[in-house]
Amino acid sequence: MTDAAHLEAAVAAGRPRRARPPGPLVWGGAILGLSLFLAAAPSLVAPYDPLAFDYGAILQPPSPAHPFGTDNFGRDVLSRVIHAYRIDMGIAVFATVVPFVLGTLVGAVVGYAGGLAETVFGRVVDAVITFPFLVLVIAIVSVLGPGLINMYIAVSLVGWVFYARIVASEVKVQKRLDYAEAGRAMGYTHARIVLRHLLPNAITPAIVYWMTDMALAILLGSSLGYLGLGAQPPAAEWGVQIAEGKNFMATAWWISVFPGAAIVVTGLGFSLLGDGLAALLRVRR
Amino acid sequence: MSTPEYLARRLLQLVPTLIAILVVVFALVRLLPGDPASAILGDRALDADVERINREYGFDRPIPVQFGIFVRQVLTGDLGDSTSLKVPVAQLIAERLPITMLLTLMAALISVALAVPLAFVAALCRDRLADGMIRGAFQVGLSMPVFYLGLILLTVFGARLGWFPVGGDGDGLLDLLYHLVLPAITLALSLAAVLMRNLRAAIIDVVDADYVTFARSKGLRGSLVLLRHVLRNALISTVALFGLSIGTLLGGAVVTETVFAIPGAGRLMVDSITGRDYPVVQGLTLALAVLVSLTFLLTDLLQAWLDPRIAR
């Protein structure tokens, strides 16, 4: 901890402060920890094979043997929901990690260089934000063909812009501060100043946005799965599962309702973690 | 700068944006692995057909020439023909896009009607029970996928209770509006959550501002202060956010129309992808992007009206 942070903490401790429990951070962390565990080892928890047909137990309502019921092929819905964590948490990570890394680097360069780079980047941003994100991703997927890998490519082609915009504006502020000036006076290279000194100070808002973006990626991934453009059946993916159950909503609601609940809970986990991090790191959003 | 000058400058800014949109949409089909003609015709295409398509679409010409042809065609309203429906793409878009626009407009109105009063309640009861409940509910709304919410509303209020039709676009304008109620609510919820969150924070910022205290101290009625001073100023950033969200709303419309079987532009888009109908995908992407850039223009003007300093 730096001296300034110590001082601030001491001052804060000295004045009567309303107790603010780190609730969001704890809850978000707990939900995501559990989600990651399920994604890593679904077979340890899931009671059945997610793909195994059982024609003796078709469209069974929730019961002790099948807590989330079974679908029209007799597959256990709970096991499918659990196995889907692997694909959907994978989407959250793989659809956002390239945009995060690439966008952060581009944003740092653009923010530090300014001038022409900034102007050109501004035009790119203007162009990208005019396209409805989902429409552009769907259009790219339609050209590349349905499937998860093509979805990651499509999202990465567009998504880096948002990170770059956040980091560029932050680096622009940081590079005018004294410590950046000092780095230049010491004769450090531009690369060293940007990567070692500016970026660590400018990256926080991008990390907080990353949390939101992972929740958005799950929404996007499951939407594409629902439309038949993302994960392909019979794979266990929440969007695919909801699509499979949509014609049984009136008679066997459990096929679609439980996967949807998993999406909502996971999304909540990411937004709670994002809120908690924002509060902890004092990011205004 | 005067208002007409701001309007002129803002219109001029539209030109590079439109050029960029054209470049992206043009590049889209050129992303195709292999040559576009075989992609359009499928794997078992005959060489003669591939050659014919190449000539028809100009794929055998140099890229800049192709772009020139593309721009000229778009400017004359010629977006090519749908490969599966055999009708001009422009005509398809003219038929289907108004339904999507109506749906999006209804959703926008519903989300504003939900967000504004709830944001006031949440901001004025800050950190109390009502605030917590409203924020909690909207947090859930934010994590709810559009297609899931739509499916649930459709099952409960359409199939089970029979209050609303379970899909389609009905007969005539009034019936269409009735058919769009559930889809519009579905689409509105997540935008309402985003706007609510932003507006709540903005109201909290504004409520303690000096000019609001001054207005109160002049003895102005509480509701008048809220409307004339607090809401107007809190709305400025929310209008910007609303403009930026319009793309998300249109994207959501694609999914919503599929869930509710509404024959709008979104449904057309999904159908065209399944049918590998690239001219339609391209035309719709173009049309939706232009629609968004026009919405940006509108919200910028609205912001300038709310805060004349912006136009300066």
UniProtKB/TrEMBL annotation, chain A:
Organism in which the protein naturally occurs: Rubellimicrobium roseum
Nucleus in keyword set: no
Q: Classify the main location.
A: membrane
Family per record:
Belongs to the binding-protein-dependent transport system permease family.
Protein name in UniProt = ABC transporter permease
GO process annotations (BP)? peptide transport; protein transport; transmembrane transport
InterPro entries found in the cross-reference section: BP-dependent_transpt_permease (IPR050366), MetI-like (IPR000515), MetI-like_sf (IPR035906)
Tell me where in or outside the cell this protein is found: Cell membrane
Gene3D superfamilies, sorted? MetI-like (1.10.3720.10)
Organism ancestry: Bacteria, Pseudomonadati, Pseudomonadota, Alphaproteobacteria, Rhodobacterales
What's in the GO CC field? Answer: plasma membrane
Record Pfam families: BPD_transp_1 (PF00528)
Provide this UniProt record's keywords sorted from A to Z: Cell membrane, Membrane, Peptide transport, Protein transport, Transmembrane, Transmembrane helix, Transport
Automatic annotation (TrEMBL), chain B:
Predominant subcellular localization, coarse grouping: membrane
Q: Which residues form a coiled coil?
A: none
Q: How does it sit in the membrane?
A: Multi-pass membrane protein
The cellular component terms of Gene Ontology attached to this UniProt record, alphabetical and capped at eight, are: plasma membrane
As for subcellular location, the record says: Cell membrane
Alphabetically sorted, this entry's keywords are: Cell membrane, Membrane, Transmembrane, Transmembrane helix, Transport
What CDD domains does UniProt report for this protein, alphabetically?
Answer: TM_PBP2
GO BP field? transmembrane transport
The ABC transmembrane type-1 domain extends over 97-303
**Which residues are listed as membrane-spanning?**
12-32, 99-125, 146-164, 176-195, 234-260, 280-302
* Protein's UniProt keywords contain Transport: yes
The record ties this protein, via InterPro entries, to:
BPD_transp_1_N, MetI-like, MetI-like_sf
**Domain of life of the organism encoding this protein:** Bacteria
Entry's family note:
Belongs to the binding-protein-dependent transport system permease family.
The family database entries (PANTHER family) matched by this protein are listed as:
DIPEPTIDE TRANSPORT SYSTEM PERMEASE PROTEIN DPPB-RELATED (PTHR43163)
Identification of the protein by name: ABC transporter permease
- Gene source species: Rubellimicrobium roseum
